[in-house]
Every structure is written in C-alpha cells, then in structure tokens.
Amino acid sequence: MDPPRTPERSFHSELVVLVPVFLVPVTWWLALRAHRATRSPQEGELQERVTRARRFTLLAVLDTLIASLLLIAKLDGHAAPLGQPRVELEPTSPFEPLLGFDCGEFWRDELVMTLLPVLVGCACVAAVWLRSKWREPHRAARWGLVLLPLGLAPMTGLAAGHAACVSLGGWSVGVGLLGVLAQGFVMLALGGMAMWLARPELRVVVGPVLGAERTTALGALVMLSGLARVALLVFSLWSLVPELHGINDAGIEVILAGQHGVAGRALVLLAAVGIAPVAEEVLFRGVLLPGLAQSMDARVALFISSIVFALFHVPSHGLAAVLPGVLGYAFGWARLRSGGLAAPIALHMANNLLVTLLTWTGGSGT
User: Fold this and answer.
1) Residue 95: helix, strand or coil by DSSP?
2) What is the distance between the alpha carbons of residues 118 and 313, in angstroms, rounded to a whole number?
3) Helix (H) or strand (E) holding 198
C-alpha cells in the first residue's frame, strides 16, 4: 500500500521549504570569501581566519544537505508535514482528569521511556568520571556527585506524578506539571549541593571571558541559528521516513497546550519558565559541564554534556529531543565563555517562555 500523501501546504509551509534552499548560495559565498581571506592575512591572524573559513564551509555543507532533503521531501510528498500537529485540550481546570489516560498504564509507559535514556546518560557520565579517577587518583573529582541528581530527579518526578495521578483520580495537565516541579526541586537541591561541594573543580572558562550580557546575546544567535537548522533537518527526515512517525512523543505538547485557565497557565509558567531552567542549568551547566571539562578538552565536554542533556529530554520530547541537545550546546557555550550561570539561565528561560507562548497562540513548541 502506498503511503498517504501530504495534504496541501500553506504559504508559510512553502516558505519553510524554499528559504533554506535559496540561502545555500549565500553560505557558500561566505565560505569562499573566508577562504580567500586566508591567502593574505595580517600577522597573527592566520589561524583565526583558517578556523573561520572551516566553520563557514561546514555551515555551507550542512545547509546544502538540509536544502536537498527539504526538496526531496517536498517532491516525494509523503505524509508528515514539516512540523508537529497542535494538541487541542480544553479542561476547565489543570487538574481535571483527561480521558484516555489510565494511571497504571501511563506509569508503566513513562517508566520504560524514562529509564532507558536516564541509564544511558548516567552510564556515559559515570564512565568519564571513573576514567578521570583512574588517570588522576590524587584528585577529589567531587563533581561525580552529579550522578545522584541525574539518576534520582527523573525517578522522583515520575513517582510524584504517579502519586498525584492516583490521588486526584486520573492523569491531567496539572499532574504532569507537579511531576515536573518535583523533578526540578530535586535537581535544584541535589545539584546545588554537588555544585557547592565541588566548587574548586568547577571554575572553568574557555577563551577570553565575556560579560553575561554579551554572552547572552551571542548565545541567542548560536541557539537560534543551530536550532533552526537542526529542526529543519529532523523534520525533513521525519517527512521522508514514515517509520519515524511513531517515535515522536507529544508529551511536552500535551502539558503546554490547551486552555487551563489562569491557575493552569500560572503553573505552566512556574514549572517551565521558573523552576526547570534554573534547576537544569545548575545541574547540567553548573556541575556536569565544568566537571567533564576537567577531564577532557572543553569542546568534547560540551558535546558530551549536550548529548546527556538531550537524553534526559527523550521522555518528554521523543524524536525531537535532538533539539534540546542543540539548545544544551548553546547554553553550555554561554557557560564556558562567561564563567557563570547567569547567561545560560537567561537563555534557557527565554527559550522556554517563547516556546510556551508560541504553543498557547497556536504554534508548535518543542
């Protein structure tokens, strides 16, 4: 049986496909100019210009790949638009049980979805920490305490959500948010403790120190540029491979979408914009990233911490967890360049607020 065809795309959907295609010549032009600039550099600028030329070339290659996949997806016309359907929910209260969600079944499904990525993430961190202890046994390596909140926080949030589901008579948006809050408080408490105990090991800065304001502005550019490109790449692959459709999980969409009333939306803002960004930054960029950077090259540490960050978003984001991974890279870059958490926390809060508002107004958040 032939796969279903994609429905007629809107003008905005067509722009999503065509704009990256027309931008490919621009990025290749920038790459060529950067390479020409390496031929007659001023004294002391050769390495910097070569690095810039390589980055522009990689960017041009990536944009060419994305544009090619988007054109193939458009011509192929298989089901799955370049985006995700909006989930419509209209409970009168954030704690009104939603039909179709059984507490026991939901608990079992979420337990399986949570355990695997959490175990993989913790195993990666434990391997790096044990390697550090083996190679430098004289070092305290107290940053390994990050394993406690990494493993405990998701399980605590899951258990709190299940307990609330049973006590309130069914799963609801409010129950999901209570689980998020419980996880955030555990991350904040245990991550903060680990950061305080390991503080002599966590003073890592890469390159000239930038102020928090400048780092936040540059980090926003890195975040938006990288996020847009990876999102287009993921969604084009999702369009071309129907088998990937079932991997997508709309958990975060269910929590953010719908009319929850004033109390519900306040709870969403508290969990998604208030607690979660601070808690996650304390844990992942306050302890994990600088701890990893003590044991390896900072760029490798940034990449590994971003992968772990993405793994911990698999239960709520499914296939789209790659996008939080990109965000984690931008947040981590801001942490390494500024030397503090103010810039990554500001970027994280701004992203979560933007996604929440876009979801409420009819966009599709991730």
Assistant:
1) coil
2) 9
3) none
Helix (H, G, I), strand (E, B) or coil at 356: helix
pLDDT band with cut points at 50, 70 and 90 for residue 16: low
Rounded Cα–Cα distance for residues 118 and 150 (Å)? 8
Burial 151-161 (b: 16+ CB within 10 A, else e): bebbebbbebb
pLDDT value for 5: 43
User: What's the pTM?
Assistant: 0.78
DSSP 8: P
Cα–Cα distance, 91 to 98 (Å, whole number): 8
Residue count (the chain) = 366
Return the percentage of the chain with pLDDT > 70, whole number: 74
68, 57 Cβ separation under 8 angstroms:
no
258 in Cβ contact with 334 (< 8 Å)? no
The whole-number average pLDDT for the span 195-208 is 80
Q: Which two tokens stand for residue 18?
A: 């065509």
Spatial separation of the C-alpha atoms in residues 343 and 219, rounded to whole Å? 8
Q: Could you tell me where the DSSP H helices lie in the chain?
A: 11-37, 46-76, 103-135, 147-167, 173-197, 212-240, 251-256, 261-268, 276-280, 289-293, 298-311, 314-317, 322-338, 342-360
Q: From the centroid of its chain, how far is CA 3?
A: 31
78 Cβ partners below 8 Å, 6+ apart?
3, 4, 5, 6, 239, 240, 242
pLDDT tens digits for 148-190? 999 999 999 999 988 988 888 887 888 888 899 999 999 999 9
The DSSP secondary structure of 281-338, one letter per residue, reads IIIIIIIIHHHHHTTS-HHHHHHHHHHHHHHTTHHHHGGGGHHHHHHHHHHHHHHHHH
